[in-house]
Every structure is written in C-alpha cells, then in structure tokens.
Amino acid sequence: MGENEKATIIVHSGEFDKVYSALIVGNGALSMGMDVSMYFTFWGLERLKKNELDKGPLSRMNFLGLGKWIMKRKLKRSNVREMDALIDDFNELGGKILACDMTMDIMGVDKEDLREDVITDYCAVGTYVKEAKESDVTLFI
Amino acid sequence: MEEGVKMASSKKIDVLGETCPVPLVETRKAIRKCSPGDIIEVVGNHPESKKEIPMAVEELGLELLDVKEKNDQWRIKIKIPEDD
Asked: Which of A67, B17, B38, B48 could form a disulfide with A63 if both were Cys (CB 3.0 to 4.6 A apart)?
C-alpha cells in the first residue's frame, strides 16, 4: 500500500461546537483511511488543558450557558458520542494532536497544564506548513 | 513449527442506535485489529452510515461482500484482502 492521503486541521477556536466539529471531521478522515494531524492553537489550545475539552461556550446562542446546556441535552438525546470519547477514538485510530508552542508561551501554559496523555508533540508554524503542503485536505476551524 | 499460519476469523460489530461518526469509527477500529482474510460484519441503523461505510471500504482498498437492509436495520459485510 502506498502512502496514505493526509488531512491537517488547525483548531484555532475553543468553542464547544467548533471543537466538536473538528473532532468529528478528524475521526471521519481517520476512518476513511487518511492520516490526520490536528494543530491546537490560540483558543483551541485552551481545550487541551486538563478537564477543559468540552468546557467552551457555544459559538452562537450561548445565552450565558443556557444555550450550551440545551445543546448538550440535545446531543445526549441523539446519542452523540461525548467529546472525551471522541478524542480517545482519535488517538486509538492513530491521529496526531499537536500543541502550539507559541500559544503556550503567550498564554503562560505549561506542559503540565495540558492533556499530555493525548498530545503527540509540541510544534510551531513550520511543522504545520510543511505538513499542510503535503496534505490533501486542510481545514482551519 | 509452521510460520505465520493463522485462521481467518469473523468479527461482528453492533452499532445499533449509534450516530455519526461512531459507526464509521467503530468499523475502522475493528478493521485495524483484523488480519488478512478476516471478515467483519457491521450491524446498525444510522441511515448515512449505510452509504458511508462502503465508501470507507473502497478508500481503504478492502472488499465489500454484502450490504443488506431490513426494517431500517442494515448489515454490511467486509473482507480484509489476503496478502499477495
């Protein structure tokens, strides 16, 4: 078998719905046989802190958390897999999770603050550009 | 001792009641654990996955043996190709 097709996703947003979308697309691409790297930066990096993955607000109609509460109920009723399980699936299927070194620096985030159990590596923009150049799909979420 | 001789096995995955992306993800997980010659049967009822699992099978270069549907429940059979 030749080299797999590749998808690279920048997770710049930290909002609940956007991180959900990123994880679903990431898992979908892995399931279709692609290699996938997710680059967490800026507000997205916040979600890689311990116990923070699903803590972002909704990007629209959050209404001080009421909107998110309703959304979470709807997700549960539709039996959508929780984010924590999705990030574990992503890992199990061989996806890579990269944390932006520069964001860590600006926001004063240490490695110990982050989910080191799911992070594959720490990197800067060069790693992303190199991988994006070789990718068939690139997304900025 | 015989070298590398292993009987092909058959696996069943139940994703009834599961929605996107779980049927696809669980199928992929099972495929990763399979050996050449193995057969996987996926049973579910998420309508889109009935179309998408065969797409993944094609992308992964596997063999789609059968797709059946009865009472909104589908059954997809996949074979991992034998090594040449």
From this structure: A67
